[in-house]
Amino acid sequence: MRGRMPQKYKKGFHPYIEGRRLFLREVRQEDVNDDYYSWMNDPEVTRYLETRYIPQSRENISRYVEAMSGKRDEIFLAICMRKSAAHIGNIKLGPINWIHRFADISLIIGEKKCWGKGYGSEAIRMLSRYAFEVLNLHKLRSGLYSDNIGSARAFRKAGFTEEGRLKRQWISVGGFQDELLFGLCEEVWRSNA
Length: 193
Hints:
- The chain has 193 residues and is α+β, with helices and mostly antiparallel strands.
- It has a domain at 7-138: Gcn5-related N-acetyltransferase (GNAT) (Aminopeptidase, 3-Layer(aba) Sandwich), CATH 3.40.630.30.
- The protein is built from 5 helices and 8 strands, in the order ββααβββαβαββα.
- It has an 8-stranded mixed beta sheet.
- The longest helix has 15 residues, at 119-133.
- The two termini are 13 Å apart.
- The model is unreliable at 1-11 (pLDDT under 50).
């Protein structure tokens, strides 16, 4: 469902993938602001990210954004609110295996006030549709810490199913925990679309 973008965002504004409440666009250098810096240094936000082990400077974040720009095997997008264009998180497709036609999806909702409102699952659905319809991929995957209940819920809501479990794969607060492996094949996605 596509609605009109607010008038104030039309000039110089190019959403890449549009959804009901969100749109996805490229991550820009101007996104590396106080909010983004705060997300990447907030232990609650980065609890399930490998970046949590290294303090993130604006320069490190900026270099990462620059390195991701224009990559052919990874698509790095900002998750933005349709009504306000506020940047609330990021989602990444990749690395993409073009031969076997699969890719990983990972995301972060950095704005805590947006947690638990279905924005993660909406962004996953939007990127899944793009991956299957535009990029002609066959399968999408994601690996999650077993106690990352919010992400597991978002992927299930977006049509992914748990396909496996790697025992005691990751060190986390309180010791080792399992990695849950989620997947979604294109034919299953089409049958539920």
